[in-house]
Task: inverse folding
């Protein structure tokens, strides 16, 4: 099969398209022919060797895909060959991938492969954060930083669905337009001036119930300063490339709840919440209530360009690699 692989750590230009063996199927796993795989910012970090876990070379990036089951391992009774599925597993930038059966889910009939690949990581992450970490209630005012990215746009859509009053912050008109289309009521343009000044002018001082931050960088602290007393700040990642340092006196003065979220380990730490969220999320997906924005589609041979679009924060919503696309 063909797979996008790196043999050295670095920028997206480290990617090569190699011919490799189809992965061996083990007990409890399914083998999926990949039709589409979504690019997420952590893929760029892993290629650079900058992620929280080490990258072992040679390495096939990608963690999110959709395709058709072609074979099942011993002990698997939930899937059969021919099933259309979404996959949450490593090494998805390839024509085939294996995954534990518990990391595979059926795709609703009305959902195409690209949309299915673009849904799972960001939307499920955002749902866990809103439902179990920030514990959003109807009427809460929620600020989403990086609202035009994959997680940010998913958070805007799902927070609106949960009844929140969503404030979206992003850096371009296109990203802010997408956030508005997905339910944001208030739009904040990073380039229009100081974030804190804009928040105070549009929302009122200290009026945020929660902040969701997948970006980090210079905007984290001013967002934290505009939380109400006892509000919740959730850090999800550092797409800006900069991990901010928060003055502890803000915690003393504002009494916020500051939490972190990582989708890889959430089910280990909160299995009850993870199972509940997953069941609710599956219902939303089957009912057609999720609408991921697929911004760009690339063939496998142009994986480098797809990664560059995400690394350069030019992607609005999700960027997808389609295996049969020329």
Result:
């Amino acid at each position: 099969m063909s797979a996008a692989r790196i043999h050295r750590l670095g920028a997206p230009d480290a990617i090569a398209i190699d011919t490799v063996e189809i992965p061996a199927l083990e007990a409890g796993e399914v083998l999926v022919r990949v039709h589409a795989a979504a690019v997420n910012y952590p893929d760029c970090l892993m290629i650079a060797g900058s992620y929280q876990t080490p990258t072992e070379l040679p390495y096939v990036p990608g963690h999110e895909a959709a395709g058709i089951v072609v074979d099942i391992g011993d002990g698997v009774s939930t899937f059969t060959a021919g099933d259309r599925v979404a996959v949450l597993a490593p090494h998805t930038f390839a024509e085939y991938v294996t995954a534990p059966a518990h990391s595979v889910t059926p795709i609703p009939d009305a959902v195409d492969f690209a949309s299915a690949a673009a849904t799972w990581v960001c939307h499920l992450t955002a749902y866990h954060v809103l439902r179990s970490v920030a514990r959003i209630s109807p009427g809460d005012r929620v600020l989403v930083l990086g609202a035009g990215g994959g997680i940010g746009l998913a958070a805007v859509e799902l927070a609106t669905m949960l009844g929140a009053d969503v404030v979206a912050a992003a850096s371009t008109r296109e990203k802010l337009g997408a956030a508005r289309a997905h339910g944001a009521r208030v739009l904040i343009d990073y380039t229009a001036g100081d974030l804190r000044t804009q928040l105070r002018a549009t929302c009122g001082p200290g009026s945020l119930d929660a902040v969701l931050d997948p970006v980090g960088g210079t905007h984290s602290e001013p967002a934290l300063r505009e939380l109400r007393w006892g509000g919740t700040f959730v850090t999800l990642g550092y797409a800006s490339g900069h991990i901010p340092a928060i003055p502890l006196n803000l915690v003393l003065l504002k009494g916020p709840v500051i939490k972190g979220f990582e989708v890889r380990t959430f089910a280990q730490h909160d299995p009850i919440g993870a199972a509940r969220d997953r069941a609710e999320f599956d219902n939303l997906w089957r009912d057609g209530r999720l609408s991921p924005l697929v911004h760009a589609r690339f063939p496998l041979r142009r994986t480098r360009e797809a990664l560059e679009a995400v690394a350069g924060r030019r992607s609005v919503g999700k960027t997808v690699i389609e295996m049969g696309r020329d």
